Amino acid sequence: MRYERRHQPLVSRREFAGRLGRAALLWVALTLCGLAIGMSGYMGLEGLHPLDAFLNAAMILAGMGPVDAMKTDAGKFFAGCYAIFSGLLIVIASGFVLAPIVHRVLHAFHVEQGRNKDDD
Known about the structure:
With about 120 residues, the chain is an all-alpha fold.
């Protein structure tokens, strides 16, 4: 995503909405990939039913914690790694969504009417 520079005017609301839409789609894609990773791990390592694997992965991805107790050492290790991964994934994905909003707010405060000597 390219953002306008300091000396450029704010983009239109329509372009901004498109920017937000692309960021939201990226957030959804990252979330679905994270969910798929979690479900695969729980089904493969713990033998959970797909619906139970979805529940556990979604709960960890949302920051709530697992529902089922892990029975194997590999499942416990995966659950710990997946929890760390999920925490980082949510922070990164949220950054993608917040970036256009923060940029627009900051850019609105810094839109210049003319050029200054430090612009060169």
